[in-house]
Amino acid sequence: MSSIATGVRAGSGQTYRRLSRFVGGVPRSVVLAGGVLLALVVVAIAADLLRPIDETRVDLDSILLAPSGQHLMGTDEVGRDLLTRVIHGARVSLTIGFFGALLAAAVGGAIGLLAGTLGGRADTALMRVTDAAASQSHFFFVLLIAVLFRPALGGSGAVMFAVGLTHWPSLARIVRGELLSVRERPFVAAAIGGGAGRARLARRHYVPHLLPAIGLAFVLTIPHAIYHEAALSFLGVGLEPHKASLGNLLADSQQALLIGGWWVSLFPGLMLVVAAMTIGTLAEYGRERLHPRWRSELEL
Amino acid sequence: MTGLLEVEDLSVGFRTERGVVQALSEANLTVAAGDLLLVVGESGSGKTVLAHSLLSLLPRNVNVTGYVRLRGQDLLGLSPRELRHVRSRRMALIPQSPASSLNPVRKLGGQLLEAARARGLSEPAARARLAELLCELGLDFEFVGGRYIHQLSGGMQQRIVNAMALVGEPDVVIADEPTSGLDTALVDTTAAQLLSISARGAALLVITHDLRLAERLGGRLALLYASRIVEIGPTKLFFKAPSHPYGRELLRALPEREGKSIPGLSPELTALPGHCAFADRCPDSFDRCVESLPDLYPVRDGVAARCFVHAER
Asked: pTM surpassing 0.80?
C-alpha cells in the first residue's frame, strides 16, 4: 500500500468530512435530531390545525386501507386515519414523557439535595430508601402505581405518576454525588473563607453545579417515560383505549398485523423510536455542551 | 505592644483515629497595621493550619485553644454570623491555588461582583470599585468578567483572587502559599503584587515554604518546625544569620548555598517529643536539648529563637 498517497487522499477527504460533520459547530447528527424533534413538537402542538380530522372518527367504509394519497399512513381496523392518530399519539406521549420525567426530576432532585445537604444519618436513611427503590425491577412498581392510581388520576395522570415515582433513584444518586463532590471543591472552601453563608453557597455554587446534571437526567428520563406509557398502554393499564397514544396505537395494531396491516404497527412504532432517539441524541450532546470547559473550547 | 492581629498561645490539634495530631503548639504572634509577616516552614509544620485557624476554617474534628484577636475582638468565639462578617470584610484569605478557588462553571464577573457585594458595596459601587482595582492590577473588568477562570493565564488568575481579597479593604490579608506551582517569573510578579498589597496599609500574612519568595518579600519572618514557632524576627536578619540551628540548616539546604539537605525527618505530629523537636537532627544538640522544651529566647534586634544556645547567653 502506498501509505503517502492514501494519507494525502484521506487527509483532504477527512477535512471535508470533518467540515460536513459539523453545522455551525454542532455535529450533523445533533442538528438532525434537533430538527426532527422540533418538527415533532410543532406537529404535536399544532395537531388539530394540521390534520383537522377527528382522530377518533370511525369510518367503517375505509377499514385497513394501505397508505395512499388520501391516508398517508393508511387506516386502522375501524377506519380511523392513522396519520392523525400518530400525530395525536405523539402529542400525548411527549406530554406524558415530559411531565413524567419532570416529576421524577423533582422527586429525585429533592431527595438528592436533602441527603447531600443534611448528611449523616439522614443521608444514610435517604440513600438506603433510594437503594431499596432502585434494587427492585421498577416496571413492577410502574405497573402497580399505574393500576392503583388509574381511577383517581385517569390514564395519563396515572402513567406520569408511575414514571415519576419510579425513576427518581438514579437522579437522587446523581444529585447527591455531585453535591458531595462540589462541597469538597477548593472554591467552596474559598467562598466560605470569603464569608459566604449556607444560603449563598447553595444558590451561587451548589445549584449552578447541579443544574446540568439534573437537566440532563431529566431529558434522559423522557424516553423512558415514553416507553413506559407505551408499555402500560400496550398492557391495557395505561391510557384509556380510545385515546390515541403511541402505546395504545401499538396495542391496537396487533390484530391488524396478523391480517397483513403492517402499516398500523409500523408508523406508531417508528414514531416511538424516532421520538426516543432524537431526545437521547440531544441529551447526549447536551452532556458534552453543558460542561463549561468543553463548551469554551468549542467557542475558542 | 498591642497589634492589629494578636495570636496568643494558639494550639490546634486534630482528633484522628491515630490519636491527636498536634498541628500547632502555643503560637504567639503580633501583627500591626501595614506589617508584613512571613510564616515559613516545611510541609506539615503547621503554617496552613495557623492561617486557617485565624479565620476558623478548620474542620470539625479540631481542638483549638488560645486566643486570636482582631483589634481586641476575640475571633475564636464568634457566632456564624459574626464570623461571616469578619471573613468578608475584615480579614481576607488569598487561597492556595487560584484556578481551583473560583467556581469553574460561573463567569468571573458574577463571582467578582458577588465578592464585592458581600463586602457591603452596592451594585454600581461594586462595579466601579472592581474596575478600578483590576485596572491597578493590570486587568480589564469587562474582559475578565466575561470569562471563566480556566480561560485566564496563571498570573491573571492570581490577580483575580488578589482583587477578590482586596475589594473589601480588609484589615488583614492572608496569602496561603501564593507561589505554589509557579515558575520563577511568576514568583517575581506575585512577590511584587504581595508587596503592593502590603503597601496599601493592610497587615499581610504570607504563608509559604518558598524561601526565595520570603527573601524577596522582607518584613518579619516566623519559622515553624513541627508545629512550633522556632524563630521569629526580621526577615533580613534571618537570611543573613539565622539564630536557630534549624533555620541555619534550612538555608544551607538551598541549592544556591550548599544544597546540603538536613539528615533525618521531622517528628510525627501524633508523637511530638517533650523536648526540642529538632534535637535529634541538630548538629549542635547537647544534653539539655533532649531533656526539656526550650522557650523562645530573645537573641538580638527583635529576634527570638527556641534554642537553648540562646538561653546560655
From this structure: no
Please answer yes or no on whether B93 and A209 come within 8 Å at the CB atom: no
B114 contact residues in A (CB cutoff 8 A): 200, 204
A204/B55 touch (CB, cutoff 8 Å), yes or no = no
Q: What's residue A291's pLDDT?
A: 57
pLDDT one-digit tens code per residue, B110-153 = 999 988 888 888 899 999 999 998 988 888 999 999 999 989 98
Name the one residue in this structure whose C-alpha cell is 470547559.
A293
Q: Which of B57, B103, B104 sits opposite A192 (nearest CB)?
A: B57
- Residue of chain B whose Cα is closest to the Cα of A207: B105
Is A19 a domain residue? no
Number of separate domains in chain A? 1
**Cβ distance of B106 and A195 shorter than 8 Å:** no
> In CATH, what number is assigned to the domain containing residue A181?
1.10.3720.10
The ipTM is: 0.77
Residues of B in contact with A181 (CB under 8 A): none
Give residue for cell 503554617: B47
Strand locations in chain B, DSSP E? 5-16, 19-31, 36-41, 62-70, 73-74, 91-94, 172-176, 203-208, 220-225, 228-234, 297-300, 303-305
DSSP string, B249-267: HHHHTSTTTT--PPSS-PP
pLDDT in tens, B277-289: 898 888 888 888 8
Asked if residues B205 and B178 have their Cβ atoms less than 8 Å apart, the reply is no
Residue A278 included in any domain: yes
Residue A17 lies in a domain: no
Residue the block writes with cell 446540568:
A212
Residue A266 lies in a domain: yes
Contact list in B for residue A200 (CB cut-off 8 A) is 114, 118
- Residues of chain A with C-beta less than 8 angstroms from the C-beta of B118: 194-196, 200
- Residue range B205-247, pLDDT digits in tens: 999 988 888 999 999 999 999 999 999 999 999 999 999 999 9
Residue A105's domain spans which residues? 25-299
Residue A209: closest CA among chain B residues belongs to which residue?
A: B105
